[in-house]
Every structure is written in structure tokens, then in C-alpha cells.
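REQUEST
  id: r-88c1
  op: predict_structure
  target: DUF2252 domain-containing protein
  payload:
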Amino acid sequence: MTDLIQRLKKFNGPLLPDMVQLKYEAMAQSPFRFLRGTCHLFYEDLANSSPLPLAPLTWVCGDLHMENFGSYKGDNKLVYFDLNDFDESVLAPATWEVVRMVTSIFVAFDTLNIEPVKAENMAQLYVRSYAQTLAHGKAISLDPRTADGIVCDFLTRAAKRTVRDVIRKRTVKKKKRLLLSLADERHFKLDKQLRKKLKDHINEWIKTSNEGPYNFEVIGSVFRLAGTGSIGVKRYLLLLKSTNTKSRYLFLDMKQARPSCVQPNVPVQQLQWETEAARIIAVQQRMQNVCASLLSTTTFEGESYVLQELQPVKDTIEVKLLRENYRDMYVVIDNMGMLTASAQLRSGGIQGSSIIDDLMAFGKTEGWQDAIVSYARNYASRIKDMYNEYLRAYREGAFVSA
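RESPONSE
  id: r-88c1
  status: 200
  body:
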């Protein structure tokens, strides 16, 4: 068994065995899906090589790549485009976030067979946009009024979607009752006992939590599959119905919170959080301009979970959508650099992160940008080699569960 296979099996060993097989299947689809499913490998290798110049400490989402930006409806009911995955969030050097994102650009462009020169240009653009935003010292947000190009179109379409769209997509009607659909390939049936426990637990959360939706109750639940890196964690989708308004529903996403895979590799003292879910939503609240509706935590059967509303507008930019239009690609990458820096500025000076003055000074310095692009370019090549090794092992049955 090779070192790569051992590392993958060790990391994924604690996950749900039947679901982790789906994760392995997803990772075999392309080098980009492999990158998304192996965040732990990236930071293990980064920590062991120590190639980057010193940088200020910031809060980071930890697993930043091109498809971890997307639209969502904030708790103020407006639609935003921003970073949207904080499962691996920690306090780390600012460049750790940036170099993973730049690596994802190189890997995505190679996966889509886009010319290397375009990948190089986009990597430079992202780093330049990031540095300029830091240097200005002011966090910027994107909504339909401030966005341009494909991001504006994306948000405008998203804002028109309604809860009814989600109902049509994820439910079926039987005997005048609305049920979560098991025809959706991402929904799996739960056993009766677990469904009852979830129902009782969330109904109690609704009654006792300040973040819970008033006058709602659980009427259904399924196991939910989503993402790549998070496949294998416990995740549930709950359908809630209003107790005083006819035909009013909510969808609640309940996702198990595991320790960050970045934390063992980052040489920085971390805060002692009450739970992993508390860490995730605290960093999310610091880095996002406006957070998603119903964002909260709960502890179920001794494990912590992040709760938030599953929304009709939440969606991500898929890299394959950018392949045909270089101008659209330019605007999106420029926005992503700006949003990365804005999230770090927004959380500046909080519990160990560098103050905005230090982030501004770092944005104005030179030298670190070339080091990031160089490392990302080389590591993207390593990702491709690891993917090919993984694909051979996967096809030979090395990851088939006994």
C-alpha cells in the first residue's frame, strides 16, 4: 500500500463507511474533484515544505477553492455572493488561504483543458486583486446591485427563486401530505427510530433556541449528500411546516461538525471552542458580510452540528460554466480575490488575527505573490500525479469497503 493510499484511508476511516464509498467515487471523477476531497493532503504537504514567506495571521475558511464561492440569502433576506464553506476554518497565515485557492485555479483550468497561459493569467489576477483589496483596507460585499458580469446574472437569477422551487425539487405529495422525496439522488432514507429522535430534537431546538424559527414543527427528514470533502459526515435535511400559516414550509440543513483538517498542520495556537460547530459558525459570522438565515448550532447524541436554512438561492459557481467565456472568467476571478481579502479584513483584530493596519501593509509589500503562484503551480502538478495514482488504486479496488 502506497503512502498516498494510507493517508487517504487514515483520514477517511472515521467517516460513515457506506457514504465514504460515494466520496471515493466522486474523487475519481477528475483532478479537481480529487483536490476538493483531499484538503487534508494539501495542508499536510504545505506544512512539511514551509515554502511561503511570513504573513499576518487571519481567520481563514480553510478549504478555499473556486467552487466554495456562491450565492445565498442572508438573514436580512438579501442575496449575496461570498465565501460559503467554513468547516475547516482556523486561525492561520493569510497566505495559506490564498495558496489553496490559486492551486484550485491551476487544477480547474487543467481539468477543463484550458490553455496554461490563461491559468497563469488568472492566478496572477486573483493574487493581484487580493493584494489590492488588502492594501485599501476596506472590506467589500457583492449583491445584485454591486456585482458585474456573470456574478450579477447569477445573483439576479438566484434572487428570483422561491421556497416553492425547493419544494418542487425536493418533495413529493402523497395523500395531501408533503414528503421529502427519495427520488432525489442526494436523499437517503433514515430508519424510523432516527427520524423520531431527529424530530424530537429539532422540535425542542425550535422551542428553546433564539435562532430557531417560531411556530414551526418537523414533518420529515432524510439523510442528505452534498459537496465532496464533506461526503461521509452525518448530514440531514429536515422539512419544517408552519403551525399557524397554511402551506408555509422551511428546509433545515443539519451537518455534523468535525475537527478542522487544517488545525493539526498550522503552527498557530488555536482558541478552545466549546464545540466544533461553535468554531465553524463563529468564523463564518466574522468573515461573511451577512450570514445565512437560521445559522446556529446544536448537539445531537453527543456530536455537534451546524444548522442553517437550506435556501432556494444558495448555489455555487461551477468552474465548467466559465470555460466558454474568458471575460466572464476574468470578472469572477477578480471578484474572488476581492472577496477573500474582504473576509480577512472583516475579521481583522479578532481573537488573534492581525489588525487591519498589518493586513494593509502586507497587501502593499511585494515578493510573496510570486512565491504563492509558484508553489500553487507546482502543487497543481503534484495533484495531477496524486490523482492518477489514486485513480489506478481506485480502479483496482483498493478503496472497496469489506
